[in-house]
Amino acid sequence: DVGAVDYAAIAAAFPAVAVTTPVPQFVLASDHDRARRFVTLLDCLYDARTRLVIAAAAAPDDLFVGPSEEDDDDDDAEEALVSVRDLAWAARRAASRLHEMASPRWPASATAPTDFFHSRRRLHLDAP
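Structure (tokenized):
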């Protein structure tokens, strides 16, 4: 499996990253692992000020579907939902970061080389 260390290495090695597999909409309860990996990828790219090119199934605010703050907290389900709720918080941060990364000002100090997409250095990963 690919994780944070791998994503950090990618972010350090490339000024821009293109995810060629369409990014699906994540249902946090059932797509927990894939959603967590995608959030981790975004965090690493954001922290490194790396440009990101993706095609997603939904807008940033709708990319992650999960529990809301108003969801009922029954005793049996509460413990099972703790990690999903933690991921929901990370997903809101990820959506905010996607909005910022989509800005024409992102990142203000970095520019991708013109030959980036023609480079022979290609990295293939399974979809997040």
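The first helix runs from residue 4 to 13. The CA atoms of residues 60 and 98 lie 6 Å apart.
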